[in-house]
Design goal:
The structure holds two protein chains of two kinds. Chain A is 72% helix and 1% strand. Chain A is mostly helical. Chain A is globular and about 65 Å long. Helix content of chain B is 33%, strand content 26%. A six-stranded mixed β-sheet of chain B has the order 6-9-10-3-11-12, with helices on both faces. In chain B, strands 18-21-22-15-23-24 form a six-stranded mixed β-sheet, with helices on both faces. In chain B, strand 9, helix 6 and strand 10 form a beta-alpha-beta unit. The longest helix of chain B has 16 residues. Classes of the chains: A mainly alpha, B alpha/beta.
């Protein structure tokens, strides 16, 4: 099969086509929506979700997931906003560092539960999510903390040479490319996929699946903090609920699965996941432009997640049936197979 | 009236494979019929068709004159056909009685009638003469007893046809005896029994008739009493492989002592000592659960050691993780290929280079050329049947999967000195088994020390140069191949202390 034909049968191709179809529909229905402001707005959202996606997709490949990603992002930006408010004379990059250090700490806590104690990542991160959002609400009494540092606030407003593309989007794109390269071309990336695919076999082959996943939890915490800072710069404030209402971590989960990352670990590539997030955001944004309220993203996330998982699961079942394997009694990861990549 | 099950013209195709082609035979009540064939001969597909799990493309299933067609496994059960699979289909957290009566729990006034449930279950358990408490959750039962629960389930449903898929694979010899007694009892009651197994010895012990399949086609239907092992193997492989063991070309020159284990004690084994020389094949025999696997896991750094020492080439070693052991030149092919050995949904290439990612690296990237070369070497060396190196291992047969693991540990990326094979031929067809025996001997000739664990007595006493026998976590004896007989080894494996 030629490379091109292979590409036309891949998930990535499907995602690109779907995105273009949506854009075309919007162009027909609401041609006025094609303006600079909307494009910049879309890219702004893609900036912080793209950063967050790198952490979440990598974790998924190792067989884990962090439900507390949004909450960690919120706490990180609140720490930053509060420090800037209290000590306006201290250079703010020091406080950005503090936010990142928080990411390391919160990621390490998740790693300790999931990989140190060996608890189920899904359950203990749901718990940590409530802990962080609870703490954030307690400290701020539910209100936002405005940021009055002009330099910081202008970071998200820097555009690439007069285009509506913010530099933060370029930053997210570069991160996606780097992580994508790590998965595809490096030893560490391969170790993630192998230990996500079958941790027992990986350990007996000399890998250390728990250590690998622990590193990815910490990585996820740090990237969550970065995403939080980008959001804070865009909104000029820290908010205890900004991320959870947007459901950013769920968007990343949906995008990853749409893009071919297995939710049981062991398979996936970041490029597809990034196309997935573009599709989701374009769809959500288009519906907003056409007059639906902005929480429509929650609805889209949920529907797409269920659809994506259904398609994946049916694909796996069909493939297993072809092999004459029983779906219920398979060893190792049950859904963790590379779908159509 | 004679009870019978007749299959005729059964065909089933999967994309790229004709799993069954025009298979037909007749099984009669009160007899045990063996289904025999290499892996991929179509036995499992046939059982799945019988259990209503998959639909045949063509063909008829007739039970006592009535033609059956199943839309689901439920239909098959209702028609009186129970298939007991290798992987037990029990609800592990539920009690024995709930499992046995699953789908048919007695109810009084809309509430589960536990009294009747318990009484009826007890009745069945007593009929089988087993020491099982109806209220225990099945996950606390031994594997053998879990299997008995499966059989009681089929018995309770009063199934006329009971099919067993490799029932003895997880069982010890004593447990196999219990199972065979049960099968004989079911036979006396006039049940139609189908029995799938790779172990020829058992087939001669427990079956009355044998149907041989090869490549999805019917080969022959013979009476067990009128055939012998040589003939059956000939039918199965379509060629005369003669005496598998006599033709092995062995290594007879041993080198220095490679491994010395002194008074090794872990949570599962006690005071184990033995040594192995370069070029030697050391067999480990014993019943399932005797502690053989646990000794190897401790040597390999996968389980913690409580006391004792391990010396590799005269130097004391302490491995904290499998990685340390691998770096020192030890390789382990674990007992359970699919769960512990391979990452099933990834490619042959990924699985072969998995432990040596460090060595296929062109900083900062992986060296794809090198990993491809190594993979192709392994595919050639072991004759792994695959069109490409990208094929995911779940699509390979059991024998080829085992070869992938062997290929991993003997590739040019690694200097393996000690190769530990834990049940390397489990669930593998006769032809590939013979290939694996020869590979073991060849590796010994290259100077590797090989530890060969097997629960099949004939195999371990014929392939290994020396056999260590374990029971309950300790070594009960050691026999040289020249003096080894199945009786002798079995006596040690079951010795009372």
């Amino acid at each position: 099969m030629s490379r091109f034909r292979k590409f036309t049968q891949s998930k990535s191709f499907l995602l690109i086509v779907l995105t273009l179809i949506i854009l075309a529909i919007v162009f027909i229905v609401e041609p006025g929506a094609y303006n600079r402001g909307n494009a910049a707005q879309l890219m702004a959202t893609l900036s912080y979700t793209g950063v967050m996606l790198c952490g979440i997709a990598m974790l998924l490949m190792s067989g884990g997931f962090d439900f507390s990603t949004s909450a960690q992002a919120s706490v990180a930006m609140l720490i930053f906003a509060e420090l800037v408010r209290r000590f306006p004379s201290v250079p703010f990059p020091i406080f950005m560092l503090c936010a990142l250090v928080f990411g390391v700490i919160s990621g390490s806590i998740n790693a300790f539960f999931a990989d140190g104690l060996g608890l189920m990542p899904f359950i203990c991160t749901i718990g940590m999510s409530s802990v962080w959002s609870g703490l954030a609400a307690l400290y701020t009494r539910g209100s936002t903390i405005p940021i009055r540092n002009a330099t910081f606030n202008s970071i998200a407003a820097q555009y690439v040479f007069g285009t509506p593309i913010p530099w933060t989007f370029v930053f997210a794109l570069v991160l996606v490319l780097i992580y994508s390269g790590v998965v595809k071309y490096t030893r560490f990336g391969r170790s993630i996929l192998m230990s996500g695919g079958n941790p027992t076999a990986a350990r007996l082959a000399g890998l250390n699946p728990r250590k690998i996943q622990a590193m990815l939890f910490i990585n996820n915490g740090v990237l969550a903090a970065v995403a939080g800072l980008i959001w804070a710069s865009q909104q000029k404030m820290g908010s205890p609920t900004g991320f959870s209402t947007a459901g950013a971590d769920m968007t990343c989960l949906t995008a990853s699965i749409l893009g071919g990352v297995s939710f049981m670990g062991g398979a996936g590539a970041l490029g597809g996941a990034f196309l997935g997030i573009i599709l989701i955001q374009v769809l959500a944004y288009s519906l907003q432009v056409m007059g639906l309220p902005n929480w429509v993203i929650t609805l889209i996330n949920g529907s797409l997640l269920v659809i994506a998982i259904s398609i994946d699961t049916f694909n796996v079942r069909r493939r297993m049936k072809k092999l004459g394997l029983k779906t219920a009694s398979m060893g190792g990861p049950r859904m963790g197979m590379p779908g159509m990549r | 009236m004679e009870q019978y099950l007749e299959l005729s013209g059964i065909s089933k195709a999967f994309p790229g494979v004709q799993a069954l082609k025009d298979v037909g035979f007749r099984a009669t009540g009160g007899k045990v019929l063996a289904l025999l064939g290499e892996n991929g001969a179509g036995k499992s597909t046939l059982l799945k068709i019988l259990s209503g799990d998959i639909k045949p493309d063509e063909g008829k299933i007739v039970l006592n004159g009535r033609e059956l067609s199943f839309r689901s496994p439920h239909d098959a059960l209702k028609s009186g056909i129970s298939v007991i699979y290798q992987e037990r289909q029990l609800m592990s957290a539920m009690s024995v009685m709930e499992n046995i009566f699953a789908g048919d729990i007695p109810v009084k006034n809309g509430i589960v009638d536990y009294k009747t449930l318990k009484r009826e279950t007890k009745k069945i358990i007593d009929q089988f003469g087993l020491p099982i408490d109806p209220e225990t959750p099945v996950m606390f039962l031994s594997i053998a007893h879990q299997q008995m629960v499966e059989i009681m389930k089929a018995y309770r449903r009063d199934s006329l046809v009971i099919a067993f898929d490799e029932p003895t694979a997880p069982l010890t010899d004593t447990e196999i005896e219990i199972l065979f007694n049960l099968i004989r009892r079911l036979k006396e009651q006039g049940k139609i029994i189908l029995y799938v197994s790779h172990r020829l010895k058992e087939i001669f012990e427990v079956t009355d008739e044998i149907v041989v399949l090869k490549d999805g086609r019917f080969v022959t239907h013979v009476n067990t009493a009128e055939t012998n092992e040589q003939d059956l193997i000939k039918y199965m492989v379509g060629r005369d492989i003669g005496d598998t063991y006599a033709n092995l070309s062995r290594n007879d020159k041993y080198g220095d002592v490679l491994l010395e284990v002194n008074n090794l004690t872990t949570y599962a084994v006690h005071d184990v000592s033995f040594s192995l020389r370069k070029g030697e094949v050391l067999g480990f025999a014993g019943l399932v659960g005797a502690g053989r696997t646990e000794v190897m896991r401790a040597i390999f750094g996968a389980d913690p050691i409580i006391s004792g020492e391990i010396k590799l080439e005269g130097k004391k070693v302490e491995f904290k993780t499998p990685k340390d052991a691998i770096d020192a030149g030890i390789a382990l092919c674990p007992e359970d290929r699919k769960e512990q050995g391979l990452v099933l949904w990834r490619s042959i290439e990924d699985n072969i280079i998995m432990p040596f990612l460090d060595k296929v690296r062109k900083w900062p990237f992986l060296d794809f050329k090198k990993s491809e070369r190594v993979t192709i070497e392994a595919i050639k060396k072991y004759d792994i049947k695959t069109p490409t190196i990208d094929k995911i291992v779940v699509e390979l047969s059991g024998g080829n999967q085992q070869k992938v693991i062997l290929g991993r540990w003997t590739s040019s990326l690694v200097n393996t000195k000690l190769l530990i094979l834990d049940e390397p031929t489990k669930g593998i067809d006769v032809g590939t088994k013979a290939e694996i025996y020869q590979m073991v001997c060849d590796l010994a000739k290259e100077g590797l020390g090989v530890i060969f664990i097997s629960s099949e007595l004939t195999e371990v006493i014929n392939v290994a140069d020396r056999i260590i026998v374990m029971k309950d976590g300790t070594i009960t004896g050691e026999v040289l191949r020249e003096e080894a007989t199945e009786e002798k080894v079995l006596a040690l494996a079951m010795a009372s202390n």
